[in-house]
Amino acid sequence: MHPQMATVREGVMKLEPLSKKLKPEVVNLDISKYVSKTDFAVSIIDRQIEAQKINIKGAQIIVAGGYGVGSKKNFDLLKQLADVLTGEVGASRAAVDAGYVEHERQIGQTGVTVRPKLYIACGISGAVQHTAGMDQSAQIISINTDADAPISKIADYNIVGSIEEIVPKMIKYYRQNSK
Ligand SMILES: Cc1cc2nc3c(=O)[nH]c(=O)nc-3n(C[C@H](O)[C@H](O)[C@H](O)COP(=O)(O)OP(=O)(O)OC[C@H]3O[C@@H](n4cnc5c(N)ncnc54)[C@H](O)[C@@H]3O)c2cc1C
Fold it and tell me: Using CA atoms, how far apart are residues 57 and 129, in angstroms rounded to an integer?
């Protein structure tokens, strides 16, 4: 028997309810029967596990910002919107690289994969490396000054305008309506 292994990035697949009919069997294999010690090029010296500070994967609503957000200060607007909606702030790699926001919030191929109920993409162009981490969101709203940005093809709603103009209005109206 040749053991086979497959790995899937966390969050890529939808969590389905556990089927009660399934009765999986756990088989603890003695790996020394199949692989010799010299085959292991890597040895684990130590494990450092830190508590997760940001739970972006568990958020039902994500307000994500890209390079178009323009500054750390404008990211505070996204934080306010996320707070009103009881969501989390996410980001594109360009926003992380520009130092607007922490790396833990990066969504995409080299960040986390999310599938919230609502994803509000602010100033994000929609590069494939970004959309790979969010295109399974149930509803996508894009706010962008460019009506033809690639994200517009996958967004359910496109708001054409600047972050500075649109986001404060959204904060205002969501606040009014949630009272
Ligand atoms: C190997 C590899 C891995 C990568 N992994 C990731 C990843 O995990 N996640 C990721 O996100 N990217 C990743 N990238 C980078 C990716 O290719 C893009 O460069 C990045 O996603 C672009 O980020 P952005 O959309 O924020 O910026 P941009 O592409 O610069 O887009 C900015 C957008 O903001 C709009 N805009 C400008 N001003 C305003 C304003 N005032 N108001 C509203 N809109 C405005 C513009 O019209 C534009 O659409 C990766 C790239 C590589 C090569």
Answer: 17
